[in-house]
Amino acid sequence: MSIKQFKIDIPKKELDDLQDRIKGTRWPDEIPGEGWKRGMPLDYTQKLADYWRAKFDWRKQEKKINKYPQFIAEIDEQPIHFLHVRSATANAIPLLISHGYPSSFVEFLHMIDPLVNPTADAAGGGAEQAFHVVIPSLPGFGFSTPFTGKGWEISRMANAFIQIMSELGYDRFGVSGGDIGAGICEQLCIQAGERIIGSLINTDPGAIATEYTPPADHLNDDEKKRLQEMKAARREDFGYIQIQSTRPQTIAYSLTDSPVGQMTWIVEKFKEWTDPTRELPEDAVDIDQLLTNVCIYWFGRGGAGAAHFMYESAHAAPAWGQTHNRPQGFVAFGNEPLIRRMLDPEKKLTYWNEHDRGGHFPAMEAPEELVGDLRTFFRRLR
Q1: What is the rounded distance in angstroms from the CA atom of residue 274 to the CA atom of residue 200?
Q2: Would you say 208 and 343 are in contact if contact means Cβ atoms under 8 Å apart?
Q3: Distance between CA 40 and CA 230 in Å, rounded?
Q4: What confidence tens digit (pLDDT) does each residue in 137-182 have?
Q5: What is the largest CA-CA distance in the chain?
Q6: Is there a contact between 131 and 115 (Cβ–Cβ < 8 Å)?
Q7: Cβ atoms 330, 343 nearer than 8 A
Q8: Cβ(204)–Cβ(335) under 8 Å?
Q9: CA gap 310, 292 in Å, rounded
Q10: Per-residue pLDDT at 123 exceeds 70
Q11: Where are the domains of the chain?
């Protein structure tokens, strides 16, 4: 494995090309009066695309990201991009944070400084709560591109991340993540065993409405009815998985060729999965951070890589729901009592906390709360 320093520097010709492509978008018609029912409404999409083209400042965001040390590791011929930010605190806990879909390392930008330097945090954290932070881009995502071969599913990604942590000199480390990142954390605990200090998973109501949920025999009739309602609603927005896990190459052309196509593919999920009390995606997350995430997919051609990852995961042995003996905690966002009833019915987890606000992207929606949970959880494991 080789590790090289990395800095984002998107050529001007790519920025100009992005501008031209957005400006030249060929817009579809739409069925009047449907709002978000059939996907992103035309008027909203056009306004967001216009903001992206005319007001969004990529260079500003690029500079913001580049203040953090970045690297590219090559493992089995696959480039893996990651941020590695060390704390000045000598006994800081190494922490690997893994993103999900349709996200990237950009999701965690607001959390890095408070985790690395808690004494400068408004919450008044002490130096004893500091972390060395490692944030990889999943193979195929972000700048861990191109997706160079078959077999890169969750368990293989976890193995690659263990190799990176070893190369960085971290014998023991904590892990955290949600969505795909939750599965990677599980695999890290299984594969690395005692090297894992503990695992803190963030979750939301959507997590218990998929086919991967635990048995629900212990629920009462009202709870079972509620769960079925949630699963029915979830099926309405699961088309993206069916497409990407069966025909990733076909959808890759649209996601790679049309910036508005890539933007809508991502932003629709921010509408569906963020705090339901927020009307629009930008009411739940910072619009510039959201568009920076879209840009990472666009410039890295990560739409194709993410699609191929889903194909690999769908055609590999299941990597979810296995057991391990490492300390584990959950943080639930979104005010849904069924989450704990499904994931921790006997209240045996090392740590559990719930927050009314937030949803699928808590590092963007409620970063202060998530930082607080990471501090509390790992403080008990020092």
Answers
A1: 20
A2: yes
A3: 21
A4: 999 999 999 999 899 999 999 999 999 999 999 999 999 999 999 9
A5: 60
A6: yes
A7: yes
A8: no
A9: 22
A10: no
A11: 2-379
The domain defined by 2-379 carries CATH number 1.20.1330.10: no
Cα separation, 338 vs 171, whole angstroms:
37
Hey, is 105 helix, strand or coil? Answer: helix
Specify the pTM.
Answer: 0.95
Structure tokens at 19: 């501008």
Decide if 202 contacts 371 (C-beta within 8 A): no
**Cα–Cα distances in angstroms (integers) from residue 207 to residues 6, 17, 127, 199, in the given order:** 34, 37, 34, 17
CB 72 within 8 A of CB 81: yes
Tokens standing for residue 20: 């031209």
Strand order in the sheet with 196-203: 2-6, 70-75, 78-85, 131-136, 93-98, 173-177, 196-203, 328-333, 351-355
Alpha-carbon distance 235 to 350, whole Å? 32
Is residue 121 very low, low, confident or very high in pLDDT (cuts 50, 70, 90)? low
User: What is the average per-residue pLDDT within 29-33?
Assistant: 96
Mean pLDDT score of the chain, rounded to an integer? 94
What is the Rg, in whole angstroms, of the alpha carbon atoms belonging to the chain? 20
Tell me which of 322 and 225 has the higher pLDDT. Answer: 225
When pLDDT is averaged across residues 373-378 and rounded to a whole number, the result is 96
Q: Looking at residue 320, what is its pLDDT?
A: 64
pLDDT of residue 119: 76
Verify cis geometry, omega within 30 degrees of 0, for the bond prior to 345: no
